[in-house]
Amino acid sequence: MFRTMSVAFTREEDIEATAADLADRPISPHPNLVTPQGLALIEAELAAARAAYTAAQVQGSIESDRTAMARATRDLRYWSARRASAQLVEPGEDEGVVRFGGSVTIERDDGRTQTWRIVGEDEADPAAGSVSHVSPLSRAVMGRRVGDEVQVAGQSAEIVAVG
Could you give the angle at the alpha carbon of 87 between the alpha carbons of 83 and 90, nearest 5°? Predict the structure, then answer.
């Protein structure tokens, strides 16, 4: 006869061990292009990860909170790798061409206009108006000029401003 154990009787150490076994954050296979602001963001995140790692060590024995140590270690590995691979792209001359670090405004067929800044993956925030240089939108507009027609999300759009 088989007996099942209630979840309530699961050993606390087993839960901690599972929680502490965090997978690494995935590292993008694309070049890690960054704007000056993106580099500053990575450095701030790296400093925060170092501080979290130190705090996890200081809080007592690692066994008492393996989750905090695992999270801090994972984040430290991620941000260290992102800082080591960062390729700073300084703003260039505005030649009227959509480029990394610049902005682009498109007008869609339905009359909507939208503006985005093309940035590195770690600083991209579409809700705040910035998209990654590897996004489909960026790929569609990079190297184009005002007046060019592009396909964005399966719809035609015209580039109406570049900055």
Answer: 120
Q: Chain-wide mean pLDDT for the chain?
A: 86
Q: Are 162 and 150 in contact (CB under 8 A)?
A: no
92: exposed, middle or buried (C-beta count within 10 Å: 0-12, 13-18, 19+)? Answer: exposed
Instruction: Note if the pTM is more than 0.70.
Output: yes
How far CA 103 is from CA of 4, 100, 152, in Å, comes to 60, 8, 16
Q: Which residue has the tokens 């941000």?
A: 79
Interatomic CA distance for residues 152 and 137, integer angstroms: 6
**Spatial distance between the Cα atoms of 40 and 132, rounded to a whole number of angstroms:** 16
pLDDT of residue 118: 97
Residue 79, classified by CB atoms within 10 Å of its CB into exposed (0-12), middle (13-18) or buried (19+), is buried
Q: d(Cα 157, Cα 15) in Å, to the nearest integer?
A: 51
